[in-house]
Amino acid sequence: AMSESSWLLRAQGAWLALSRLGFARAWEAAITQDSAAQALRLSAARIPASGVRPGLLAMALGRSNPALLVECLLVCGANPNATMAGAVPQSWLCAAAMLGKPSAVNVLLTQGAQPDGNGAFGQTPLEACFAHWPKEGPNQDFRLCVLLLLEAGAKVRSDTVSNMPLDEVVF
Predict the structure, then answer these.
(1) 83: which strand partners?
(2) Which residues of the chain register pLDDT less than 50?
């Protein structure tokens, strides 16, 4: 026969496991539905985001208000230096810089993301941003990403400086 304290511990463990699963699903719904209002409610209620799959973090960057979703996730425990799994693992900051999302880059840096964290193929976020710099059309968002990264202390490695259009950032 199971003692009362043993039963209670098992019940608490089961509740915790279920609640974590529910928390992750709630965040998943907010991100996949691009619901800023739902993300704000989850954040205000301090619903833990630590169980959110890294792929969902990447999905948040592609939404209409990535900075808001990113900030809500970070406030609730998502790791700003998380590595997103996939064909080519990379940091969340690297992905934001590569996509030219300055508001998300700013939030991640403010919340402790490492400006030189490795990304795809060993690139830093700065190098990833330059690698995806638009050849034509507007590049203001990419310019802002570069400036934010440099301001946060990102290093320009001498072996990659020739591939960076630094003159486009400065002028």
Answers:
(1) 91
(2) 7, 11-18, 171
Asked if 86 and 56 touch (Cβ cutoff 8 Å), the reply is no
Backbone φ and ψ for 12, nearest 5 degrees, come out as -65, -40
CA angle 132, 136, 137 (to 5 degrees): 100
Beta bridge partners of 91: 83
For the stretch 10-33, pLDDT in tens is 544 444 444 555 666 777 777 777
- Map 110-154 to HEC letters: HCCCCCCCCCHHHCCHHHHHHHCCCCCCCCHHHHHHHHHHHHCCC
What pLDDT score does 171 carry?
A: 43
pLDDT of residue 26: 74
For residues 111 and 80, is the Cβ–Cβ distance under 8 A? yes
Write out the H or E segment, with its range, that includes residue 90: strand 90-91
